[in-house]
Amino acid sequence: MFTPELTTKLERARLVAVLTIEDPDDAVPVARALLAGGVTVMELACRTPRATEAIRRIRGEVSEITIGAGTILNPQQVEAVVAAGAAFGVAPGCNPRTIRAAQDRGLPFAPGVATATDIEIALENQCRVLKFFPAETSGGFAHLTNLAVPFAHLGLRYIPLGGISVGNLTTYLESPLVLCVGGSWLAKVEAIHKRDWETIRRNAAEAMSIVPTARTT
To answer: Do the Cβ atoms of 45 and 19 come closer than 8 Å?
Structure first.
């Protein structure tokens, strides 16, 4: 479901800023702050009534950012984020009905997995890029490496999210299993509420200063 072009873009970006925006007026400034810090991919969670409007604004005004949609829980949200122009979709779990809706609409989609059963469901629905969530509380990098063993011959790639920080970022990025890493610490809700764009830029720059030391091939 992920095109080679999109997969390459995510692998080169290495870090995806994961955030929630309540006021669409904050969308473009957040995107520009992240971009100024070197982050080129965002996953905007569909947890607020105007999330799709925020996606639409970023897509229209900050073309350098690849904007995806997260917390997609049902087919109705698939329709909404496609209409808003999301480049990809992500879910916390592995719901076949939502996966099929994304496939029907041509939306690259990464369902959430934490167990072997989750991965088997994803495979049954032709998914090869998977969100490992919640990463750290599910057992962290050690759990991911063991979980992936029975499926290694299938070439699956993972996007870990949940508990990732500058302290463990490199551990994940050095693994060939990992396509990119989701970072929810880059643009926290508190910073967005305060419109503290400089802190968001600094967080992004700090993280990206670590990324080049990790695996890049």
So the answer is: yes
CATH code: domain of residue 38: 3.20.20.70
* DSSP assignments along 138-171, one per residue: TTHHHHHHHHHGGGGGGT-EEEE-SS--TTTHHH
Neighbour order of strands in the sheet with 15-19: 109-110, 89-90, 66-70, 41-45, 15-19, 181-183
- Length reported for the chain: 217
Structural domain of 130: 4-213
- Say which of 9, 43, 64, 120 is annotated catalytic: 43
pLDDT in tens, 172-213: 999 999 999 999 999 999 999 999 999 999 999 999 999 876
Q: Is 120 a catalytic residue?
A: no
Q: Which uninterrupted H or E stretch holds 8?
A: helix 4-13
Average pLDDT over residues 115-130: 98
Q: 131, 174, 194, 206: which one is catalytic?
A: 131
Q: For this structure, is 43 an active site residue?
A: yes
Give the helix/strand (H/E) hosting 181: strand 181-183
The model's pTM: 0.95
Number of domains in the chain: 1
Distance CA 95, CA 12 (A): 28
